[in-house]
Structure prediction request, 219 residues.
Amino acid sequence: MFTGLIQAVGSIERIAPVGGDMRLTVHAGKLDMGNVTLGDSIAVNGVCLTAVELDNGRFAADVSRETLANTTLGELGAGARVNLEKALTLSTPLGGHLVSGHVDGVGQVLETREDARSWRLQIHAPADLARYIAHKGSICVDGTSLTVNRVVGCVFELNIVPHTIAETIIGDYRAGTRVNLEVDLVARYLERLLLGDRAADAASEPLTLDFLRRHGFAN
Prediction:
């Protein structure tokens, strides 16, 4: 588990194919690696990876074909900047929101614009994730915990304050940038709970407003 509060910006040093998938070597930048041991989890652009090698401020992690297919990690090249966060501990202040590091889909930045000292971002989410994105709800973008300011269909808007721009890779975003998205954990589990016994039916209909009305959850 993670908080979505980025601890450092690192960079990809090497990408090596291994047995059909790949291994990433990441320079950890300012991330405190003093208490990191083999097998620990580190989120790289919001993707929970396991450290399998440690060497002088660097770590290596294996990236499976599943992860390559469902995140942007396979699109990164040597030198690419990445958001980093070590796993949440019981003593870690929860300043963001609960983040699993399991990316739900890839979105695309539509627009970036200045708004006083902040930035406004518009991001298009995959259609199957749109129902989990709510006004003033939480969303994780490349590992960064953010608040949704506005949502219309599959497009949501974020306000990025100067500190976040300076301490994450969000300052690198441009129209067309692809980003890893993780929706709020509560929304995902709530959908499953509302399905009730139908959750065990592989052929059950998706959770829609019509479904909620027919089962007494909405007017």
